[in-house]
Design a protein that fits this description.
Length: about 160
Amino acid sequence: MPSSQTPNYQLSQWERSDKVQMEDFNADNAKIDAVLGTLAAQVSTKAEQSVLTTLTGKVAKLGNCQIYYFSYTGNGEADRSFTFPHKPLLIIGMSESYIFRAVQGAPHTMCRTNGFQGAYNCPTTWSGNTISWQYASSSEGPNANRSKFYAVALLDAGD
């Protein structure tokens, strides 16, 4: 049996004349384990909270845009609409032959240019998360029949 105990956790303290018992060691180990477990939980909670606070601050500084990629195959119709998960601010797309660009609120989309035959504007309607445009010809432009289009949109992630 120990002659004394430590002041904070009452761990065993022996003198040379004390009889050392296994029960004393086991009791001390149980006390140490309990304190270390409590400390580990507190440190983990504080660390997680610190990481969460840091990430929240960083995300807030990222701005209000989300990049959205999509592709579609033209169906040859003169009218075309797309609905996005958020309000589109800018849309840029192209196929093998055509390039189109649309900016939120503009009444027209630059809906067909291929770099050498000039550019054509399409009447455009913006409504919430949807853009619609009309192109005079169903055989060419941003909805040319069977043409594969690839596009990127910047979406307003703040809405």
